[in-house]
């Protein structure tokens, strides 16, 4: 079919123009690209971390800790309730999601079940959870009772914790000020964090991993740490180790009751007091009130500031603090005060996170990789283009023009789709250069055969394109399958390779089949040669 | 203008008649690859073994002995130190530390501290990669699964477009290619990591590309020459596609050599695998995939006149 309907011609030329326009910003600098008029797309190709330098972390939220805390709370709640109702029981034990005990008097069973029922929360079904009671209370006969968290509750908590962790991580990264960070959930409990341009990996790891749980608790003056160590610790108190910087003590006995916690903070800022870096904080109205009450009732007594399970300072309350703001001292340096303030502002992590995988690339390596990739691409492109002209003469030149447009289309597609170009991705482009000509070769070889079989130029061209099309499609679809599977299973840089390979396949087939054909048909109609120079 | 023709028109090389030699060569190579794999194993990168990888840049040529001593003093277990591309670029691989992800991170911190102290001049840590045990285990599974799935998907596609014998032939050729590539990695000790899996999958795609072109011609000839004995038909198909096969292999190799030479050290292993893959893929399409059709009882159209023997 040598007649190219007008609409097809316009479509093909249109696609090529779109390709060129979308690819164009890549040859400009960032500023120049920004200042392009509105109707021209501004996007440049997104560079992967291995090309621009940056940090990549795969985090995993430690979900075991989630049920632990809940169970610990439940355990004390059960004991408190039973005591309030004056029901005696023994043999309290806790294992996994279950709390069990034995009533001294089995006749109390009904009353106990009743009291404990108050602990159960019936949750409303939502989009993400089917709702229902969060705890199940069982009467095992003979006064033995056990409480257990429901499956649904455990699932909901875990999911909630991961969501919350992502939020906290996002806040912390925001505070860092990284340009265009990526924070993404992966699977049930994993988070991918990518920070292009960041290079201080130690600091970032510190900021990501600190739980940053802040609580204010009163010091228990009735017991000293030595006694507490031996086990003589009153209910409602706990033994808490001191931070390494503490010059006064190695551990403290604190009341468990939390006066205020980090969640009630509105602001935290690093500042100086008497030349020493400190962190200034401010509570919300609820926190301010609780703090005011506690300080009013306990003038002259010390309270402890506990961060991540360690006491960092235990100042004496000189006067009631009614304004809800104060200062935390604790042997900070400018950097650590800054980082702590950052963490307090961003919020505490609901559960600890582990770093499963890290890949960090320095900026010089990134620049070197880009330079190498560019050089290899140009070298490969030139080599292939020269060879094709040597092999196919005039038709080769047509193939080369199609190849060039192919490159532009790939660049345009990458820019528009926002796909990420990695070093293997550049390899994918160079590989595409080598394989793209294949489609043209298939067509040209077929045309040669038709010419040898005695067909006229027009018929040979026609037969060549139509016969070769089936082969081209079959051959390229198979490579596409490989690319898609690679995309699915690959990670990071390898995914980038799959993307450019896949895009390259589409653009190669397009340019070889339509663009080169358009050019050849146009040339044929104009010159009407007696024989094809192939 | 005299055009550069790699393959003259109308060749008639006896590929099919020579197929037994090809079978022998292929068989030997596959066996050798398998033996090498079992005996020597592969040089797994940290993607699959877990561990720590650091690329360190020094001012002036690096003194590897100093670095090795420095690492030894930290007692981190197996540590490999090698030059990477230039004399001032060093690649350090440290085996997985006992313990979980935390332990790996701690080790990295100690290495950085120690090296900054022991190496003269400015030390830049160009790249740090830490892969914990959990992730490396998953990456192995993903890697193997992807190759198996790819071959499976291909089998389905070929079965759909051609007949079952073509599918089997294609898959056997692919298994041949993958085995020989693994053999190459075992022999040379090139690092076997995620990029290698990418290379293997690309080789699968490329080899299949080649095979499909030959098969396509076989299918066309089966329709055109209903009376031709299969041996002759297969041979003719291969010869007819020879020009295209050699040209495409050449252009792909040109691009790959450009990458190998100029693409930087990071891509070298990957590119080497791909170059090998082009040779092996082309070889398998001609000497494995097509001749196997003979053995698989591929008949010409049975309804065409006098019965045509499947094996000539």
What would you say this structure looks like, in words?
The complex is a heterodimer of chains A (534) and B (312). In chain A, α1 (6-23) packs antiparallel against α11 (363-417), α11 (363-417) crosses α14 (493-527) and α12 (423-452) runs parallel beside α14. Chain A is α+β, with helices and mostly antiparallel strands and 534 residues long. Chain A contains 14 helices and 21 strands. The mean pLDDT of chain A is 83. Chain A is elongated and about 110 Å long. Chain A folds into 3 domains: 6-53 and 363-527, Multidrug efflux transporter AcrB transmembrane domain (Multidrug efflux transporter AcrB transmembrane fold, Up-down Bundle), CATH 1.20.1640.10; 64-156, Gyrase A, domain 2 (2-Layer Sandwich), CATH 3.30.1360; 212-327, Gyrase A, domain 2, CATH 3.30.1360.200. Chain B has 312 residues and is of the alpha+beta class. Chain B has 2 domains: 19-44 and 136-295, Multidrug efflux transporter AcrB transmembrane fold (Up-down Bundle), CATH 1.20.1640; 51-131, Alpha-Beta Plaits (2-Layer Sandwich). A 4-stranded antiparallel sheet of chain B has the order 3-4-2-5. A two-stranded parallel sheet of chain B has the order 1-6. The model of chain B is unreliable at 301-312 (pLDDT under 50). Chains A and B meet through α7, β20, α11, α12 and α13 of A and α4, β5, α5, α7 and α8 of B.
